[in-house]
User: What shape does this take?
Amino acid sequence: MAMPSLESLWMPFTPNRQFKAKPRLLSRAKGVYYWTPEGRQILDAVAGLWCVNAGHGRTEITQAVAAQLETMDYAPPFQMGHPPAFALANALVKIAPKGLDHVFFTNSGSESVDTALKIALAYQRARGEGTRTRLIGRERGYHGVGFGGISVGGAAGSNVWLAKATGSLLIRTEASRGWRVDEESLDVWQPKTSPPSNTEGTMRRRECKTASAIPFSERGHPEP
Ligand SMILES: Cc1ncc(COP(=O)(O)O)c(C=O)c1O
Assistant: This one.
C-alpha cells in the first residue's frame, strides 16, 4: 500500500509531531489480531478502543451492515424513524437489567456522556428539583471529548483551561482537584486544597475517592 502523507490529519489524544516522526500504523484486522502495513501481527488485547468486542472482520456483522446499506443507508432521526432502530431498542430492553426500559442511541462515548449529564439535569427538573445542577466526577477520570465529558473528567487539567476559556455554562470546573476524601473521617469529604468559594462545605462520602464539582452558576448552590 502506498503511504499517504500524514500532514493533513489532526490526530486525537496523540502528540502529533512525535507520532508523525515515528508512526505506528495498522492496516488490517481479523479476529483478535491487527497487522501493520509491513505485515507484523499484533494481538489486539483491548478490542480496538474497547469497541470491537465481537472481534474484527466478523462475516455476519459485515454482511448485516452491507445489507442495511443496500436497503437504506440513512434516515433522519429528527421527527422520523426507521423500523430497525425500534427493533434494536426493543431487543436491548429485553436483555437489560430490570428498570432499564428505554434506549437513546448515540454515536460515541463522548456523546453518550454529554447526553447522560443532560438527562440527569432534566430528570431533576422534571421531579421539581431544578436547582440540583451540581455534577460530580472522579479526579483523573476520562469521559470523552465533549464539553460535558471533559468538565466531569479530571484529565490533565483540561477542564480548567476550558472553563476559563468558555466563561459560561460549565464554568468553575477548577474544583476537580479540590475535593478529596478525608481518610480520617469516614462520612465527610473535606477539601484539602482551597476550594472555589461556592463549593465550600462538606459532602457525604460515597464510593468514589475523589470528585470534581461543577456548579452551573457563579452564585453557588445549596449544599447537597
Ligand atoms: C468512560 C468513558 N467515557 C467516554 C469515553 C469516550 O468515548 P468516545 O471515544 O467513543 O467518544 C470513553 C472512551 O474511552 C470512556 O472510556
Observations:
- DSSP finds seven helices and eight strands in the chain.
- Residues 109-214 form one domain.
- The longest helix spans residues 109-126.
- Residues 49, 108-110, 113, 142-145, 149 surround pyridoxal-5'-phosphate (CB under 6 Å).
